[in-house]
Structures are given as C-alpha cells and as structure tokens.
Amino acid sequence: MTAVPVLPVRGSLAVYPGTFDPFTPGHGDLVARARMMFDLVIVLLAVNADKQPTAEATARAARVRDAMPAAWGNVEVDTSTGLTAAYCARRGATVIVRGVRTAADLRYEYQLAAMNEQLGIQTVWLPPRPHLAAVSSTAVRAYDAARPAPPIP
Hints:
alpha/beta
C-alpha cells in the first residue's frame, strides 16, 4: 500500500490538548502526524484541578519541548488553565486534535467534540499506531512507580 501524502490545510491552527503526564511516544507520534495536516499545531498542557500531576505544568511543558525535534518549526508548546475551547478562541484555532485508543475513549471524546462543535471548533480524532496503542501516561506512571529506586552509593 502506498502512503498518500498529507498536505496541511492553509492557515490552519490546531490545538492538541492534554495533561501529558508524562509525554509518551504515542503523544509524540500524534504530534508528528498532526503537524503534517495543519500549518501550526499547539501542544497544550492543560492544567486540570481534578488531576494530581507528577510535575507542574511549566516543567511538563519543558519536557514536551525537549521531546520535539528542532526541525518541527510548526509545533508550539503552551500551558493553559480553563476550557480548551476558550484557549482556541483566544488563539484563533478552529481544530482540536485528540488521540482515541479505545471505544470508551471515543464515547467520551464524542461528547466533547459535540460541545466544541457548538462553539465553532472541529475535532479531529487520530488513532494511535498499533505498536503504540497500549502505551498510556497512566501505564507509564505505574511502571515508573513500580521500578525499584536505584541503590544509594
């Protein structure tokens, strides 16, 4: 099967929101694919009071920036509190990019997409590549917590 080249929609600005705690290879893959579809992609580290992140948003944003290749000039990293739709309105973004791994993810994301569409923001869902589908931030945090601490010399 031959890959069809994806050309960015001219003037398009997409936001890929999440807590990214941590930023996984699956997240990076979605950014890599989204940046081929849109002129500019903003990876938005959302500050969610209902979650207990392992690091402050600015530290997580720095890690995400470090994970991005320097050649990806059409990718920005930002942080925000409040609704993603309000952030999109401030920045002039008309698209939200979301990764969807499971049917349960899709049900939840469909509800968000329906609300955002009422606000004039479209949602693009991207499935993970098969070899990355099982990796979630929750699983990575659980793995990191289960690893024994290195011995103190």
